[in-house]
Predict the structure of Methyltransferase.
Amino acid sequence: MTPEPAAQHYFVSDPAVAQKPRRITAELRGRTVEVGTDAGVFSPGALDKGTAALLRNVPDPQGRSFLDIGCGWGPLTIALAQADPEASVTAVDVNERSLALTAANAQGLGLTGVQTFLPEDVPAELTFDTIWSNPPIRVGKDALHQILSQWLPRLAPGGTAWLVVQKNLGGDTLQRWLRETLPEDFHVRRAATDKGFRIIAVERD
């Protein structure tokens, strides 16, 4: 069964989905970029509303090692790399078409600090000072919890993860689960509400 479009940025590309490459223009934190997208990845026609809400509300990334969980065609990865071209930006997705697009878009914009990985290929020793993610809510609660349980503990001490979740798709419930599940040195708060989206900050002591 083909995943819903809203979930495809954290699914393996369905080979039955024919490629339909296109170029689009998007504004990422005040910078206009032209990028490539394709069928079979998340939001191929435009910047997703949740991603846009996250980008409007996050501060500049801190530290030198950044992570984008579920990169799609790469808007968060690109914005992280543009904020600090000297930083190392790791883009993770299980959709190999997404990884290829993110890598090509970063290269086309001259962003040399970007690396793309399948989840199992990320070096185990890597930790991250800043994490940005529009997590794939529609994969289901258990799968979503597994994804966040895999990556949020790799936040470095003093680091912050920023997540965007639509309120009516469980943003408040997810915030409570994070607060109850993460270790004591993690602190979870609602940083903003933007047009029906919750911006959740997860900070590590």
The helical segments are 49-57, 75-83, 96-108, 141-151, 171-181. Residues 96-108 form the longest helix (13 residues). Strands lie at 22-28, 31-37, 65-69, 88-92, 114-117, 128-133, 155-166, 186-194, 197-204.
